[in-house]
Amino acid sequence: MYGYGFNCGFLACFTIADQRHTDGATAEAILVEWLTRRGWYVFLPFRGNCPVDVVAINERGEMMLLDSKKDVRRRGGPQSEMRISRGRTETQKRLGVRLAYVNVATREVLISEHKD
Are 15 and 2 in contact (CB under 8 A)? Predict the structure, then answer.
């Protein structure tokens, strides 16, 4: 059963369809670890098609709504090694969701600041 989610009681179970899904799940797991090690309480939405991947709250009551993205760089040409930026949906903009770029090879995390 590849690429389909199914409900097994209290847990939502998903199988991995291709490398993009594997990389996305890995990026999200690294983000959760990165936040936890920095003292954030981390919550994961139950729905798979949610505009937020991770909700993080710290001891001061600050909250971040994050959408995790695998950090991918351009190859070759004049813009070589530049980050391929991702856009936010209108819903994400309205909710104040920030993009968290995760390098799955180095485990580096960059949480973007949005001006819009």
Answer: yes
User: Would you say 100 and 111 are in contact if contact means Cβ atoms under 8 Å apart?
Assistant: yes
DSSP string, 70-113: E--B--SSTTTT-B---PPPHHHHHHT-EEEEE-TTT--EEEPP
Question: Where would I find the beta strands (DSSP E) of 15-83?
Answer: 41-43, 54-57, 63-70
Which DSSP letter does residue 22 get?
A: H
Please indicate, yes or no, whether the overall pTM of this predicted structure exceeds 0.90.
no
The predicted-structure confidence for 14-62, as pLDDT tens digits, reads as follows 555 677 778 888 999 999 999 999 999 999 988 778 899 999 999 999 9
- Domains of the chain, start order: 18-111 (3.40.1350)
DSSP symbol at 83: B
